[in-house]
Every structure is written in C-alpha cells, then in structure tokens.
Amino acid sequence: MAAGQISQETAEHAAHLTVGILGGTGDEGRGLACRLAISGNRVIIGSRNAERAAAAAATLASPRVTGAVNEQAARAADIVIVAVPFEGHAELLAQLVAALDGKIVIDCVNPIAFDAQGAYPVPVPEGSAAQQAAAVLGGSTVVGAFHHVSAPLLLDPEVAELDMDVLVLGDDRNATDLVQALAERIPGVRGVYAGRLRNCGQVEALTANLVSVNRRYKAHAGLRVTDV
Amino acid sequence: MAAGQISQETAEHAAHLTVGILGGTGDEGRGLACRLAISGNRVIIGSRNAERAAAAAATLASPRVTGAVNEQAARAADIVIVAVPFEGHAELLAQLVAALDGKIVIDCVNPIAFDAQGAYPVPVPEGSAAQQAAAVLGGSTVVGAFHHVSAPLLLDPEVAELDMDVLVLGDDRNATDLVQALAERIPGVRGVYAGRLRNCGQVEALTANLVSVNRRYKAHAGLRVTDV
Q1: B198: closest chain A residue by CA
Q2: Do B228 and A217 touch (CB under 8 A)?
Q3: Percentage of chain B lying above the pLDDT 90 cut
Q4: Mean pLDDT of B96-121
Q5: Mean pLDDT by 10 residues, chain A (228 residues)
Q6: B110 to chain A, minimum CA–CA distance in Å?
Q7: What pLDDT, on the 0 to 100 scale, is given for residue B4?
Q8: What value does the mean pLDDT take over residues B72-98?
Q9: B113 vs A: CB within 8 A
Q10: What pLDDT is stored for residue A198 in this prediction?
Q11: CA A203, A14, B210: angle at the middle one, nearest 5?
Q12: B224: distance to nearest CA of chain A, Å?
C-alpha cells in the first residue's frame, strides 16, 4: 500500500473534526461513529428522535459519542456524514439546508433495492444520491464516500483493521482531501480519490455487486485499488 | 488471496479453449491475446479486415495467435471475447448472431466517453453493454468480464503478474465459472463472481472512475476484492 497523497496538515485537520452522522442510529452510522471515536474524533449521532439518538450513542459506550436530533447534529458538527436509507434521503436533506450551509457533507447512501434475485441499483433522477444531495444542498460541498464499508466489520471489536479502500468522489479538491484523511482515521482504511461527483452513481450502485459477492463467497467484501 | 472456488475440471476446460477476440486489433484485445497465448491458449484475433487481423496477430509473435475476419474468428473459437468500442457494438454483434449461436460470449466493452473533465459513463438503453449483447445474441450465453484490465500492463513484457481481480458477471453459473477460470489463466489475476448481468452496468461505468484514479495517481489502477 503506497503512501497517500494527503498532507500532514490535512490529516491533523481531520483528527480534530467533530463528525455529525445523520441517520447515525443505523448499523452503518453506528459503525462509522464507533471507529472514528476510537481514533479520537468527537461524533454526534443524529436521528429524527433525540432519545433514539442518545440510545444509539450509549451502545458505543464512548465519552466522545453523543446523540442529538439530526438538525442539532448537523449544526454542531464540523463535517456531516449522511447515512440514511435512500428512501427519505432528499426529504431529510431539504429540511437541513440551513443547518448544513457552508459545510462539507459526506454522502454514503446506496440507492439499491432487493428482490428474489438479490440486490440491484435503483435509478436516481440526479444520477446518484450524492448528486441529489448536491442539488438539494446548494450551500454545502458534497463528497461521496464510505459506500462500501461493511457495517458488521466496523462494529466487530475483534476486527482491528479494515482491509479496504474508501473511494472518495467530489468536485472540490480540499474537500475530497479532507474526507480521504477522515477515512484514513479508520485503521486499515486508505482514502482514494475516485473521480468527480458525476461519477458517483456507479460507485453507489456497485454496492449491489458487493452484496452478490458476499452471498456467493460468504464474505464481507471490500475493494482495494491496486497500483496506487 | 484465498483459493478460488473454481473446480480443477473447469480450470482444465479453460486451459484448452480456443479464444476468439472480436475487435482484437485494439490494445485491450491484443493484450488479452498476448497473455492468454503465453499461458497456452490458442487465440484468434478478429477484425473487420483480415489483413489487419493478421498484422495484429503478427505483433504478438506467438504460434498460438492467428488473425481472421470477425465472423471467422467467432465461428472457429470455443469462446469469444468482445473487445470493440461501444460505438458499433450492437451493429457488429447483430451481424454475428449465427456465428455466435450456442457460444459463451464475454463482453468487456466499457460505454464511457471523455470531455474536458475526464471520463464519464454513457447511458445504455439495455442497462449495460453486456445486456445489450444479450439482447442481440439470443442464442448465446453472455458474460461480462475483463472491464478493468489495463491494456498497457497486459502488453508490458516486464509485468510478470497483474495485480488485480477480474469481476465476472452473468446469469449462468457454468459460464461464469468458466470465464473466471479463463481470467485466472493470466498470471496474478483472480476471477471473482460479482453478480448477475443486470448488475453489469455499474461495473462497466466504474472504468470512468479508474480513469480518474489513473490521472490523479499516475497509475494503471485495478481492483482487488477483499475478504474473498
């Protein structure tokens, strides 16, 4: 694994971020909260319901993790991860336009659905969930990342390091650099720039393929980019 | 890298296949021909023009590689790789319906285009180039594979092993197993089942992301699937 191209200054910036996680009561959100808190970041788990947010935070038993309603989490955080189901994604963000104004918003939403043959991608009019977020949040800088990170691995205390790269997509170099640095706060993970936001749709949809891989091989599949 | 799940019988079957490569005069086709021939497969490079096919075959200087017009390559081969540009893909296959009848057809076509901001996916009415091939070739078994294999690496004699997995997609288990085994004829490559054909569009489109990775990191990026 080659050294990243993220500056020490950016890595230190990432180390001091307070991270809000909208929809953080789900396994993906709690898993990211867990790993980031272990690495030293403050995390605010957001939910529609303050009690559910507090209860989810309590399961992680870390003084660095608290719970709040989504809007409060968005306002109090330096950077915000959106980890809600695709259903309701646009509606939630539309309520948080002011709270998220001027912030970097990391969208990790995978618009996929399931039928008898497994998972498949759901078409998104804007091209991807991340582009939908950017369309709704005109005053935020949207970055796509963390689409393929396995919640069970994040939450498994016996997994010391995650063997995977996080693909980071966006149109603002400072923002993608910072999100790469944030991803690298999770032991084992490398943040890899993987293109502009217009190329996020296939990264989100690829989650359906990883579901197929997991079923065939009984795995928690992730991706590594080679020759980087 | 865990052991594959491909039987020895399937691996031996793959070892004895004569492989036709439609559009095999391009770098991707010649690169695949080169590696498969080194591994012992007979390869027929197909082109619209017999002289160009013969000339492309001659560049590889292998007694196992010959050239022919596409239809003759399709008829003479046991299994056929489609490595043409997306423009003209459906038209070419429509001319070869009879020649490809009953055969496994491996589509590695990436419907992407370029503008000033880099590469981006081109929408395909059928969902993917592979599904387009399946729609045209009613009597063939279409498998998607080899989308992300770097032609420069395939053609570089100093690269002994390729550090990448080949994602293999299809609806027929025997066919995807055989294509996984064929991919594994290339040193360093592992064939990984990655879902049904309906999930091929995002795998093809992901080539645009790998172009972005290559530009940012000055690399020939590939993918490895972890925990498999």
Answers
A1: A120
A2: yes
A3: 98
A4: 98
A5: 76 98 95 98 97 97 97 98 96 98 98 98 97 98 97 95 97 98 98 98 98 97 97
A6: 13
A7: 60
A8: 97
A9: no
A10: 98
A11: 25
A12: 5
Q: Using a CB-CB distance cutoff of 8 angstroms, which residues of chain A are in contact with residue B195?
A: 118-119, 208-209, 211-213
Residue B198 is classified by DSSP as G
Report CB contact under 8 Å: A209, B194: yes
Going by C-beta distance under 8 Å and a sequence separation of 6 or more, which residues neighbour residue B198? A117, A120, B127, B131
A/B interface, count of CB pairs below 8 Å: 135
CB distance from A94 to chain B under 8 Å?
no
Q: What pLDDT sits at residue B5?
A: 78
* Nearest-CA distance A200 → chain B (Å): 8
Q: Provide the 3-class DSSP secondary structure of residue B165.
A: strand
- The CA distance from B156 to B162, in Å, is 10
Does residue B6 carry a pLDDT above 70? Answer: yes
Q: What are phi and psi of B167, to 5 degrees?
A: -80, 130
Q: What is the 3-state secondary structure (H, E, C) of A38-106?
A: HCCCEEEEEECCHHHHHHHHHHCCCCCEEEEEHHHHHHHCCEEEECCCCCCHHHHHHHCCCCCCCCEEE
Interface touch B194/A212, C-beta < 8 Å: yes
Instruction: State whether residue B164 is helix, strand or coil.
Output: coil
CA separation for the pair B73, A107 (Å, rounded): 47
Q: Does any CB of chain A come closer than 8 Å to the CB of residue B213?
A: yes
Q: CA-CA distances (angstroms) from residue A30 to A66, A81, A155, A193?
A: 11, 11, 8, 24
Cα–Cα distance list, A192 to A165, A227, A228, B177 (Å): 7, 12, 8, 31
Q: Whose structure tokens read 């695949």?
A: B32
Question: What is the pLDDT, as a whole number, of residue B2?
Answer: 52
Tell me the shortest Cα–Cα distance from A195 to chain B, in angstroms: 5
Mean pLDDT of B134-154: 97
Q: Is the pLDDT of residue B1 over 60?
A: no
